[in-house]
Amino acid sequence: MTVEQVQQWFALFGDLGYIVGFLLPFIEAFLPILPIIVFVIVNVNAYGLIIGTILAWLGTVCGSFIVFWSLRQLAHLKYIQRVKARKTTQRLISFVDRRGVIPIFILLCFPFTPSAVVNIVASVSHIKPLHYFWVLLTSKFIMIGMIGWLGNDITTLFTNPTKMIIVICVIIIVWLLGRKLEQHFMHNSKE
């Protein structure tokens, strides 16, 4: 699918296209198997760098906070109690309580971090909802902004080999850093 086809597809929705641009990243917060990177790139190519980035950012922040808030409200359920009782979850809760929200902020800045896992752990931790909301606003802005900038003019990725090499290097570095941080904060343990 070309950029022009994506733009025509969004144009079919008219003003509702903005809602679709918001809903795609919003739904990804509930279904983490969906590709947030693709949604951001589609948004910035359909609506431009600024509007596309804002739509994706608002969608992912709203969706993530609703997941966090919903799970926090359902903390009394047996399933949530089992998740909270796991050794890994307890270690993360303890770590967040000791270190504050900075590790969560760092993890959420990387597009390859499973944000659903972070939302779940944050919801069963002792983080205040307002603090988590601010962490989401800032970290997701960095992540979405980076993806949006890299995918802003996707056609130049194929016509300009230098940009393609830079993008591939940045993605590999971000992925490696994200994996290192994920291993540091969420080391494997037998439960």
UniProtKB/TrEMBL annotation:
Topological type in the membrane: Multi-pass membrane protein
Name recorded for this polypeptide: TVP38/TMEM64 family membrane protein
Residues annotated as domain VTT: 35-147
Keyword Cell membrane: yes
Swiss-Prot/TrEMBL keywords: Cell membrane, Membrane, Transmembrane, Transmembrane helix
Keyword check for Transmembrane: yes
Gene Ontology terms: cellular component: plasma membrane
Entry's family note: Belongs to the TVP38/TMEM64 family.
Intracellular or extracellular location(s): Cell membrane
Natural source organism: Staphylococcus arlettae
Membrane spanning residue stretches: 16-42, 49-71, 101-121, 133-151, 157-177
Signal peptide, first to last residue: none
